Amino acid sequence: MTRRSTLLALGGAITTALLTGGRPAAAQTAAPEPATLLSNVRIFDGLNDQLRPGHLLILGDKIAEVSEGQIQPPEGAQVIDGAGRVLMPGLTDAHWHMVFAPNSMANMVAADTGLMYAYAVAEAERTLMRGFTTIRDTGGPTFGLKQAIDQGGIPGPRVYPSGALISQTAGHGDFTAAYENTATLGGARSRYEDIGAFLIANGPAEVAAAVRQQFRRGASQVKISLGGGVISDSDPIDTLQYTPEEIRAAVQAATDWGTYVCAHVYTVDGIRRAIEGGVRSIEHGHIADEDTVRLMAERDVWLSIQPFEEGDNPLTPEQIAKAEPTSHWDRVVEWARLHGTRVAFGTDMLFQPNGTYKQSELLTRFARVFGNAGALRIATSGNCELFALSGRRNPYGEARLGVLERGAWADMLLVEGDPTQDINLLTDPDRNLAVIIKGGQVHKNLLG
């Protein structure tokens, strides 16, 4: 052996010793993944209406095995005896606002942003404790919250962020005072633009740039406003917003990033313009007619609708009057069920520091049209099919969400009682959610 080869061999041996603590390399074994076995449960897998008895093993952050027969847990595994309780996927909300929901209007308009985010952080944990393990945030400054949750810094649901709602001047996202110029016309930006909740863009080039900016910041999809809204004062519900060219610019920019555009819009004309422009998800759609809902089915466009009823959001008398045409959600959803239009469940709760507990109550309303199991399918595997349209921008594309099957993310709830028979059980999560697991981590366990 030459002097050079001897030195190389000696260096390799020293390196091996340092890395292995002096033990032979073959003796080094990776630390076992955390394991949890849920035994003796009745499984609602998010896909089928019928419950089936069985057992489920979690290794790390994913489901390793689902079996009707007994599963031998690995050494050191946490074993939770379900004693016949129902195990189901975690709930999801396709139209949630992590920052808007828990903050009052006063906070959003004028409070220090630290206070605003303090409320949002607290609400993130409450959302998870209601059993919602994944949400799609459809407008708001949530990128930092998502990162903190994903990094394990704070508890909360998985987040599909849209970033700022992109709006035209005098659109749903324009909160500039009527007598002031918008920033694009030489005026000052509104508070909502300053905090990254909304972004004003006009013309195809500006719209495309605004879309790309959201992706640069971490959006999984983007949201544009194509019609009037309830909380915005300067745009009547019936207005059409963004030209076909501007819509196509947004869609092309999103397509280039491997994902999709969703659109705030209520009316027939607005929905049809969205469909023709390539929008994949209609957010709201409450004033659609049956022909338009049928067209959505034909074009494979999602109806992401919220079961609004009076009193759900704190509105002024003027806003209540403005919202009246949006109260017919059940009629539109019935058309969707009839024609096979894909439906997503969301809540769009706003400005409710003490009212976000109603998130679960809104889900129960879907059961009026789809039945208990049907509503649960939509709020689990169904919503997650919509989320998966984010394609290459899917932050959780490594595994499936919303189902209980081998290889899926380990997000699940163990329920006291049977929600496929009584969905109202979910409106009392403190009492009826015995176990909450997200990514294999047990966040709540009332069974010891």
TrEMBL record:
Keyword Chaperone: no
Record InterPro entries: Amidohydro-rel, Metal-dep_hydrolase_composite, Metal_Hydrolase, Metallo-dep_Hydrolase, OTAase-like
Signal sequence interval, chain numbering: none
Coiled coil stretches, renumbered: none
Keywords for the protein's UniProt record, in alphabetical order: Hydrolase
Domain Amidohydrolase-related: 86-441
MF annotations from Gene Ontology: hydrolase activity, acting on carbon-nitrogen (but not peptide) bonds
Record Gene3D superfamilies: Metal-dependent hydrolases, Urease, subunit C, domain 1
Domain of life: Bacteria
PANTHER family listed in its UniProt record: ALPHA-D-RIBOSE 1-METHYLPHOSPHONATE 5-TRIPHOSPHATE DIPHOSPHATASE
Record protein name field: Amidohydrolase
